[in-house]
Amino acid sequence: MFMKITILNENNTRIDNYLFAEPSLSLYIEIENKKILFDTGYSDVFLKNAETMGINLNNITDIVISHGHNDHTGGLQYYKPISKNINLIAHPNIFEKKIDTDGTSYGCPISKKELDNYFSLKLTKSPYYISENLIFLGEIENNVSEDIDDSALVYINKDKIFIITGCSHAGIINIINYAKKVTAINNVYGILGGFHLINMPKNSIENLGKFFKEENIEFLAPCHCCDLKSKIILSKNNQIQDVCVGDTYDL
Q: Which of 84, 86, 205, 237 could form a disulfide with 233 if both were Cys (CB 3.0 to 4.6 A apart)?
């Protein structure tokens, strides 16, 4: 089984690749007969980068939204598909209002009603099979954050699983444990995405790094909501992948 992930948008970009970056996330995933857009970032940057990289987003079969924050949903305002055959898969709570302490809205800037004009909405709290080997996890068990809409993807490759996250507000360990439960597979090969480690205490990150090592997770690619400090701490116990716009991963 084959899966390819291309980073359409992320906080960081590399010199001489002439791609844009912004503090958000968007991935292009190819698996079986599926071409999946995972999150859309803040703006139309993912569209510009896809064009530069020669990726035709008119061929998308599915859009997956990890959660309802605007740095993952803002780009939906700029993507207008040529047909309504595209599934938009997400937790039903992605449209709930999200207001910061200063009164700033950071929720999804486009309504369910408007999205229903362009996509076939698949809003679910339960695990949803996008393909035989790729599952949207739905509502993560034991999520103690207010972002109950935070979810992830899990890819099954024989006796191993690979997890793709947006921000991991639900807790990266909770996501891992739920992915194991849903798939009945305990061997986690790798994780790519946001681990929500910015401003996390050093000892908490150290404990997470020890957990990853004990789990024998071979491929760790923290990005977006993980700062350099957290990556350095994790690297004491684990080999960490550097993630930038334009990078591709064949799994």
A: 205
**Pairing mode, strands 34-38 and 128-131:** unpaired
Query: Phi/psi zone of residue 49: left (φ > 0), alpha (ψ -120 to 50 degrees), beta?
Result: alpha
Tens of pLDDT, residue by residue, the chain (251 residues): 689 999 999 999 999 999 999 999 999 999 989 999 999 999 999 999 999 999 999 999 999 999 999 999 999 999 988 778 899 999 999 999 998 888 889 999 999 999 999 999 999 999 999 999 999 999 999 998 999 999 999 999 999 999 999 999 999 999 999 999 999 999 999 999 999 999 999 999 999 999 999 999 999 999 999 999 999 999 999 999 999 999 999 98
E-strand spans in the chain?
A: 3-9, 26-31, 34-38, 62-64, 87-90, 120-123, 128-131, 134-136, 152-157, 160-165, 188-194, 219-223, 248-250
Please name the residues in contact with 240: beta carbons below 8 A apart, sequence gap of 6 or more. 220, 221, 222, 231, 234
